[in-house]
Amino acid sequence: MSGLQPVRGTHDLLPEDSRRHRFVEETAFDVAKRYGYGEIVTPIFEFTEVFSRTLGETSDVVTKEMYTFADRSGDSITLRPEGTAGVARAFISGGLTQSLPLKVMYRGPMFRHERPQKGRLRQFHQVGCELLGVDGPQADIEVISMAWRILAALGLSDKVQLEINTLGDAESRAAYRAALIAYLEPLRLSLSEESQARLQKNPLRVLDSKDEEDKRVVANAPLMGDSLTPAAKDFFDQVTAGLTALGIPFVVNPKLVRGLDYYCHTAFEFTTTALGAQGTVLAGGRYDGLIGQMGGPATPGIGWAAGIERLSMLVQDLPQLDRPISIIPMGDTLPALVLADRLRAAGLSVDMGFSGNMKKRMARANKANARFAVILGEDELARGAVTLRDLDAGTQEEIPLDQVEGRLTGA
Ligand code: ATP
Ligand code: MG
Predict the structure, then answer these.
(1) Centroid of ligand 1 to alpha carbon of 384 (angstroms)
(2) Where L-histidine is bound, by residue (predicted)?
């Protein structure tokens, strides 16, 4: 144990951070409810194969980033690095194949052993959605528009940019793969070791490399768009036409590929320039092959996931907290506790300090953005009265203790 430090790449969410996280999550869930999404909660760990067999043996996540361990029964377990594979597993093992289309949202921690930096953690949090069972481009349009609406509800419309591309159907990808290998093979020695290893297995992955030399090599690589079958091109045209019809601004980024193996057709990312290198806040795509590949019935799917830490950093204004009533006992605290209890039971937020002079307590009330202060002075209490101070108007009056609740609840 290395002292009482948090594990590298993990962090504590203190109340103010949690409030931001919750705001992002709740906003996403509120919007998604209007699209008919319910919540799915899957375990944060799964058998390792759930991820290793689906994310792709050459993906960064599988080759370098998974938290994998043998549990006490000797089973190989992995802390989930992402949400889609677990949802697909739940769909198959839960026998949900009759309930299509299925629309689900998830939220929670994800785990990846990567190099921690701003906006890149080892335990981070995502909120995401999956729509299973719809193979037409209308699903892609709806899922992207829901993401756009969520970002708008977070106040981020002006800060994010939608980039979109198509990875085509199987036939397009096979043709593209061949074109890419033909281009990259003569340049093999200029590539990073990692990209050299991926060249034959999964050349698309080379396009996603973060290595500077690799980026130079792929700058002139052929584009997916040139290898599309007419059907794949038509699918993509329908998606972009739909986004245009919905008034969602986007740019086609012909180099956009997704890090995981199970994607086809639409791939998209919402990016920002406000967070430095970690600019992708929400990313997703279509994964028609995934469930079949896992051993389930062939079922199309599309979804996205957003990084809550990254979105939290972008969100400016949180909704105001309920303004509390400050209760200030100057003598005996018991009458104050009784009053606070009654007001809280009536649904009000009550802030009560237990010590300090009047000035300190008023400062505390102001800091809490209290609407009223109720001051319980000893002489007044002896008469069965308290002072009610309106902190907005700056006025105060003495009222009977037993009328405080009625006054403050408006009853
Ligand atoms: P990146 O290119 O930044 O590594 P990725 O392609 O690995 O992203 P996805 O698997 O698509 O990311 O995850 C969706 C979103 O989750 C990302 O866009 C990002 O906002 C967030 N995310 C991914 N990895 C991390 C991490 N290590 N720390 C914080 N947020 C993350
Ligand atoms: Mg990554």
Answers:
(1) 60
(2) 82-84, 112, 126, 130, 258, 262-263
Q: How far apart are CA 328 and CA 387, in angstroms?
A: 10
| Residue nearest (by alpha carbon) to ligand 1 atom 6 | 259
Q: Boundaries of CATH 3.30.930.10 in the chain? A: 15-169+229-314
Transcribe 113-150 into DSSP letters.
----BTTB-SEEEEEEEEEES--SHHHHHHHHHHHHHH
Give the strand order in the sheet containing 45-47: 45-47, 76-79, 67-70
Residue 205 CA to residue 11 CA, distance in Å, equals 30
CB of residue 280 inside a 6 A radius of ligand 1:
yes
> What is the DSSP secondary structure assignment for residue 63, as one 8-state letter?
I
Q: What fold is seen in the domain 325-409?
A: Rossmann fold (3.40.50)
Please state which of the four CATH numbers 3.30.930.10, 1.10.3720.10, 3.90.550.10, 3.40.50.40 is assigned to the domain occupying 15-169+229-314. Answer: 3.30.930.10
Q: pLDDT of the chain along its 411 residues, tens only?
A: 667 899 999 999 999 999 999 999 999 999 999 999 999 999 999 999 999 988 887 788 888 899 999 999 999 999 999 999 999 999 999 989 888 999 999 999 999 999 999 999 999 999 999 999 999 999 999 999 999 999 999 999 999 999 999 999 989 989 999 999 999 999 999 999 989 998 888 888 898 888 999 999 999 999 999 999 999 999 999 999 999 999 999 999 998 987 666 789 999 999 999 988 889 999 999 999 999 999 999 999 999 999 999 999 999 989 888 899 999 998 888 999 999 999 999 999 999 977 888 888 899 999 999 999 999 999 999 999 999 999 999 999 999 999 999 999 886
Measured CA distances, 267 to 65, 224, 336, 340 (Å)? 22, 12, 59, 54
Which of 59, 124, 156 to mutate for ligand 1's pocket (most ligand atoms within 8 Å of CB)? 124
